[in-house]
Amino acid sequence: MIGNDIVDLDRAARDSNWQRKGYLNKLFTASEQYLIASAPDASIMVWLLWSMKESAYKINSRKTGLRSFAPVKLICDSIIINEHNATGSVSYEGEWYYTRSEFNDAYVHTIASCEQEELQAIKIQITGFYSDYKSSMPQCVSHHGNYLALTYL
Fold this sequence. Notes:
Blueprint: E1 2-8, H1 9-15, H2 23-27, H3 30-38, H4 42-64, E2 75-81, E3 85-92, E4 95-103, E5 107-113, E6 123-128, E7 140-144, E8 147-152
Antiparallel strand pairs: 1-5, 2-3, 3-4, 4-5, 6-8, 7-8
Keywords: Transferase
Domain 4'-phosphopantetheinyl transferase: 2-111
Protein name: 4-phosphopantetheinyl transferase family protein
């Protein structure tokens, strides 16, 4: 089972004021907030952590059938960041999900899996949003702003 999340950074900058008082407390743990505060680009770190949580949540909600999104309970851990990509894990109520992310000036995209080895097998297609993607039978779909991310296993 895989998860997938994409954040259009232009759209996020227009729609979300993550710097307002109390916003980060609702979404991120104290250690995640420290990562944000100490990051060279705090905005990228916010959306990286968010997309990690969201991609793991998509797996968990499909596994359990529950739709209770509590971002602060999804805990990002073991994050390794390189120039334009990152790996890490997300824990939620005793379950672990492994993530791989890509980011650039336009978007942040994360895939997640229950199996770390499975991340390498996931095929990703990121395009502008269009409506005729269902015939390609993606395992997970994410869209935000101008971007559509499809994942296949």
